[in-house]
Design a protein that fits this description.
Rossmann fold; 27% helix; TIM Barrel; 942 residues; 4 domains; 23 helices; seven-stranded parallel beta sheet; alpha/beta; Ig-like_fold
């Protein structure tokens, strides 16, 4: 197993020298100014008095207001900016005497990515002595925090922010698959655990705010950041986002900051960066797809941070929009955290969008819109100084500043910075970060993220006992960089696919390896539109791989993408395999040996040739540092793949946009007959649809039940079904529930994901699953963009993918008045009164023969009948302790209180319903009159 940490250390002899000279890190951290630190509280303003904001027992709002009242304008504005950490903007790793003359002498809102090891794109991790180990890192952040607590006037702690979409971005930490891979697990509890571990490790390292999860919904598969989304379904993104935030923010260990708000992930041609303008979406699509996850995660998980995006929507920059950042985010969604800007979002108002004339105007627009904290790779002075000028000149009111600072302070109080500003358990950081239990969850995530796309002839799993030689090739076979990209751990040990196979087959089979080709060729990406011939060197590399395949019993080809082809600002113009990868795959296939294709990549690829000619295909996304182990487990049957696609695989970029969910018939094209005499003019259908994924076993669905089948808009229904493992291997099935609004006032999606559950089943095992359908699954934005539930039928579909539907049922929604009338109409004529023992009167209608109403001679029991009912018989069950005969009468009333006897009789048998017919007439009430003592009526049926 290669260890990048060793390679990194060797990059700089200074690293080794500094490591040798590093002072010993204490097991616990103790600040120096002991007179500030009292039992149960800290004297942040050093006045010797426990102020309200220093009192942990005081109400949150009172603490905020007390602190705010003491702050000067300089101190308030310093809270509204991020200082990027070591080697990004901040040149110091630890506080220096000069800090008392810098802008942050009055405090700072946040310090981002400080000492997390990341320097710049393409550079190795930082060799600073305070980056690692975890205890030293936590100590260093404490020292920085100590400056703000002890050496600023009010002692306001700083919020240490950091990335964390696949584990906290640190020199080392538990390394998970990238977010797209995590989405393919369809496992809420697993995602919650990923969040819990990420947040816990972050806090132990000293961070208090993690920039995760990404709540963007994937729409254009060419987009470079497709690797960072959970998938295409807004429902799935919301569900997993809620789980991630609940894990991250467990016990307020850190604040979670979701990104990117709003309408960020669907720009023209998947263009990025400075070109990220004018998303081509209707307002209703923005609401249904892009706003939906934010709305639910804020309301249901209490998200404490939102990152405002640097794009516009319909000509209005999000960063300068009061509508988006205040009216919608705070007013409608109830967001109570703070908004931090993404990159140069503020600066773009004048450098890109042209809606502000200069930086000062951009600052004013952003803050008025709702921005709390500016975050970008620039000096904090560039934001704070114009902000102060605006307030002094009257361009911004200090009341607006107060509102923005309140939100910042609220988050700092909630995460406990004013009660425990330091991470004091330094030794605990070494024990916690990358501990064995965390690594076990990481391996589980890697396994569950893999999707089996094809398995013709049951080639997989491979039988290790019948294989002598395995040929492994491809640019991703021995590559580990996919697990070490930005926004996650930087220098962990990575098991490559080759190493995973070698470890699994040690002593059992020989593994032959040749790279075969590079990820891209020398002309890429131009080679996607011009067919350059193979060079002699390229041909030689392919030949080496082919020679290995000829000697082997099976060939494993590991292709896909990587940091060169996918990532932030790396959109593509094609979805084909880049470089010479297809030629390598075709050459290996031509040997006639069984071929398994493993794809490691950050977006769906149009692998049409492979789907047609390669017998087995596994999609692994970026499977994290445990990816090689997970894939070896799957190849040889130690783990049965159960991931399902959360994205659509188009056959070609010419089909884009091609997504789930879609409107009815929107992804259907013309004819189906190819050739000169046919009527087909373009490629139809997906290569692999949303929700698709195979297994080494099979599953049967049965017994769909919807209860109740009719509800009102604010009621819920329960959908139950059974799933059975009908194969010979244990495995996971992702059961998916879809919903379709049959008739609606506006066009709605053909299918919406309405529920999912990943379930593990042993061979022959059956489990019953239940799903709840409520208002959030039924509502739509009407013609006036108001969210309503329209009465009508909703088809519910359960299946193994969006196209593999196994069970169907219908749920009907009725408006409240209609439903109330229907329920009332279904009620029996059961309004009952009695001349005596009224409390027992309802017993005669409860369906139980052992509960009775009892009276004596002359007593009666009266029933109100449905309007217009013609009564001609009634069934009565009488009781009497002595079982002696008793006489009774049945009387009817047509209104006005007058009752006429229509039947007189004697009870001949007790404890049994006996029908008594009489001449029918229209009546409003029916009465049973007793003519003997101690006679009971047990049950009456009309």
């Amino acid at each position: 197993m290669r260890k990048l940490i060793v390679a990194t250390l060797l990059l700089s002899s200074g690293t080794l020298v500094s490591a040798q000279k590093r002072p010993e890190t204490p097991a616990t951290y103790k600040p120096t100014k002991s007179e500030m630190y009292h039992k149960g509280w800290i004297d942040f303003n050093k006045n010797g008095v426990k102020d309200v904001y220093e009192d942990p027992a005081a109400p949150l709002d009172a603490r905020i207001e007390n602190l705010l009242q003491q702050m000067t304008l300089d101190e308030k504005t310093c809270q509204m900016v991020t200082l990027y950490g070591y080697k990004r903007v901040l040149k110091d790793d630890l506080p220096t005497p000069e800090w008392k003359q810098m802008l942050w002498k009055d405090g700072i809102g946040a310090i981002d990515e400080h000492l997390n090891g990341f320097q710049q794109w393409g550079l190795p991790p930082s060799d600073n002595e305070n980056v690692w180990p975890a205890s030293r890192h936590a100590w260093a952040l404490n020292e920085v925090q100590r400056f703000f607590v002890e050496d600023t006037r009010l002692g306001i702690p700083v919020d240490f922010t950091n990335e964390g979409i696949r584990g906290v971005e640190s020199y080392r930490a538990t390394n998970f698959p990238t977010q797209l891979g995590l989405g393919h697990t369809w496992n809420r509890e697993l995602i919650r655990q990923v969040g819990l571990i990420t947040g816990r490790e972050a806090r132990m390292l000293g961070y208090t705010n993690v920039y995760a999860p990404i709540l963007d919904v994937g729409r254009d598969q060419r987009w470079g950041r497709y690797e960072e989304v959970y998938g295409e379904s807004p429902y799935l993104v919301a569900e997993l986002g809620i789980a991630m935030v609940r894990g991250l923010q467990h016990n307020h260990q850190v604040a979670a900051t979701g990104k990117h708000f709003a309408a960020y992930s669907n720009n023209k041609g998947a263009r990025e960066g400075m070109a990220r303008v004018d998303p081509q979406m209707s307002p209703r699509e923005v609401e249904n797809i892009h706003i939906y996850p934010f709305r639910r995660v804020i309301r249901e998980a209490g998200l404490l941070g939102v990152m405002s995006s640097y794009n516009d929507y319909d000509g209005i920059p999000i960063q300068g929009s009061y509508y988006w950042l205040t009216t919608r985010l705070r007013g409608e969604m109830g967001f109570r955290g703070y908004v931090v800007s993404d990159s140069d979002a503020v600066e773009y108002l004048y450098t890109k969008h042209g809606t502000a004339k200069d930086m000062k105007e951009a600052v004013r627009q952003s803050v008025e819109a709702g921005l709390n904290v500016r975050c970008t790779f620039r000096s904090p002075d560039s934001f704070v100084l114009p902000l102060r000028e605006l307030v002094k000149e009257g361009g911004l009111s200090e009341e607006v500043i107060d509102d923005r600072v309140r939100d910042i302070l609220r988050v700092k109080f909630l995460v406990g910075l004013f009660d425990a500003p330091y991470q004091t358990d330094l030794a605990g950081a070494d024990r916690e970060v990358e501990k064995e239990e965390n690594e076990t969850i990481a391996l589980q995530a890697s396994r569950e993220s893999v999707v089996l796309l094809k398995n013709a002839g049951g080639l997989l799993p491979l039988d290790i006992n019948s294989i002598r030689k395995i040929a492994v090739c491809g640019p991703n076979a021995n590559e580990e960089g996919y697990a070490l990209t930005h926004y996650g751990p930087l220098a962990v040990d990575v098991t490559t696919v080759l190493e995973g196979i070698q470890e699994k087959t040690k002593g059992k089979a020989e593994v032959l390896y040749a790279k075969g080709c590079d990820l891209v060729d020398a002309h890429w990406p131009e080679s996607e539109i011009i067919d350059y011939p193979l060079t002699e060197e390229e041909q030689r590399e392919i030949d080496k791989a082919v020679e290995n395949a000829r000697q082997a019993d099976v060939a494993v080809v590991v292709l896909g993408g990587g940091q060169r082809t996918c990532g932030e600002n790396k959109s593509r113009s094609s979805l084909d395999l880049p470089g010479r990868q297809l030629q390598l795959l075709q050459a290996i296939q031509a040997t006639g040996k069984p071929v398994v294709l493993i794809l490691i990549n950050g977006r769906p690829l149009s692998v049409n040739w492979a789907d047609r000619f390669v017998p087995a295909i596994l999609e692994a996304w970026y499977p994290g540092s445990k990816g090689g182990t997970a894939l070896a487990d799957i190849l040889f049957g130690d783990y049965n793949p159960g991931g399902k696609l959360t994205v659509t695989f188009p056959k070609t970029v010419g089909q884009i946009p091609f997504n789930f969910p879609c409107k009815p018939s929107s992804q259907i094209d013309g004819g189906k007959n190819p050739g000169p005499d046919g009527n087909m003019s373009r490629i139809n259908g997906a290569l692999y649809p949303f929700g698709y994924g195979l297994s080494y076993t099979t599953f049967k669905y049965s017994d769909l039940d919807i209860s109740p089948k009719v509800i009102t808009p604010n009621e819920s229904a329960t959908v139950r079904l059974k799933v059975t493992n009908t194969g010979k291997r244990a495995g996971d099935e992702v059961v998916q529930l879809y919903i379709r609004d049959v008739v609606s006032s506006i066009i709605t999606y053909e299918k919406n994901l309405a529920g999912f559950e990943r379930v593990h089943l042993e061979p022959g095992e059956t489990k019953e699953l239940s799903f709840t359908i409520d208002r959030k699954h039924l509502e739509l934005p009407d013609a006036d963009m108001k969210w309503i539930v329209e009465p009508g039928d909703f088809v519910l579909m359960a299946g193994a993918s969006s196209e593999d539907i196994r069970l169907n049922g219908t749920l009907t929604v009725e408006d409240y008045q209609t439903r109330a009338k229907a329920v009332e109409a279904q009620k029996p004529a059961k309004r009952v009164s009695a001349s005596t023992n009224q409390k027992d009167a309802e017993n005669v209608l409860d369906g139980k023969i052992n509960t009775v109403w009892q009276g004596n001679k002359g007593d009666y029991i009266t029933f109100a009948l449905k309007n217009g009912v013609k009564a001609d018989k009634v069934a009565i069950a009488f009781t009497r302790d002595n079982n002696l005969p008793a006489t009774f009468e049945i009387q009817l009333s047509g209104g006005g209180g007058q009752f006429l006897t229509v039947y007189s009789g004697t009870v001949g048998e007790y404890g049994k319903l006996i029908s008594y017919p009489f001449k029918g007439t229209t009546a409003s009430d029916l009465r049973i009159v007793l003519n003997d003592d101690r006679v009971g009526v047990a049950e009456v049926k009309f």
